[in-house]
Structures are given as structure tokens and as C-alpha cells.
Amino acid sequence: MKKLSLNIQPKSLNGVESKGDNLAKILAGILSNKSPGIDSIKAMDWAMKLFNDGSIEIDRSDNQKLEKFVEDTDQLTNLGKSQIINVLRDLRSTKEKSGQSTGGN
Questions:
Q1: Residue 41, class by beta-carbon neighbours within 10 Å (0-12 exposed, 13-18 middle, 19+ buried)?
Q2: At what angle do helices 60-72 and 78-98 cross, to 10 degrees?
Q3: Tens of pLDDT along 61-79?
Q4: pTM for this prediction
Q5: Domain residue spans in the chain?
Q6: CA angle at residue 53 from 39 to 89, to 5 degrees?
Q7: Rounded CA gap, 54 and 9, in Å?
Q8: Helix spans in 1-105 (H)
Q9: CB-based contact 92:98 (threshold 8 Å)
Q10: N or C: which end of the chain has fewer CB within 10 A?
């Protein structure tokens, strides 16, 4: 398991951090609404942890499910999707480079 931290302010098209909710709270709101491909209990657990803590512990399979969910949702713009997906891919890449499937940040 790896720690996915989305306690990051989203950036606008010009690269400036936006004010308001961070990526964790944005994703939490979407997960609490509908979660195709993710068990509803797991989605709500993630939503509450993201909203309150800004991070969740996920394995590679969950990482891929979450990426697909973010890619497929119509509740985010491509600007928002890309920022969340990049964090997910970076986390997955870190796992592959280290050769570890367990551990935490």
C-alpha cells in the first residue's frame, strides 16, 4: 500500500494555484456522489479520508481503478482530471521504480 496524497491546490491553465478546495476535497465530493467501477463502501471510505485527511492508502489495483474512475467521470474538467491522474501515475511509477508493492510515504 502507498499513500496517495491529494492535499494539493489545483492549478489553473496559466499554472497559478487556484483558491478554494484542494484536489482531495474535489475528488472526495465526486466519490461521494457516484463511483462506477468502485465499490460504494470503499468509495465512501476514500471520500471521507480524502475530505478529512487529504490522503488515502491504496494498492496498485486501487490506483488503476481510481485512475479509470477519474478519467471516465463527467464531473471534472480535463484540467482537473489531468492533475489527479498525474499524481496517481507518479505514485504508480514510484512503486515500479522501487520494486516495492508495499510500504508507505
A1: exposed
A2: 160
A3: 999 999 999 999 999 999 9
A4: 0.86
A5: 2-9+18-98
A6: 65
A7: 11
A8: 23-31, 40-53, 60-72, 78-98
A9: no
A10: C
Unique residue bearing C-alpha cell 485527511: 53
Q: Which residue has the cell 485512475?
A: 67
> What is residue 16's DSSP assignment?
P
Which cell numbers hold the place of 81?
Answer: 482530471
91/63 Cα distance (integer angstroms)? 8
Which residue shows C-alpha cell 467501477? 37
Task: Determine the pLDDT at residue 94.
Answer: 82
Confidence band for 97, pLDDT divided at 50, 70 and 90: low
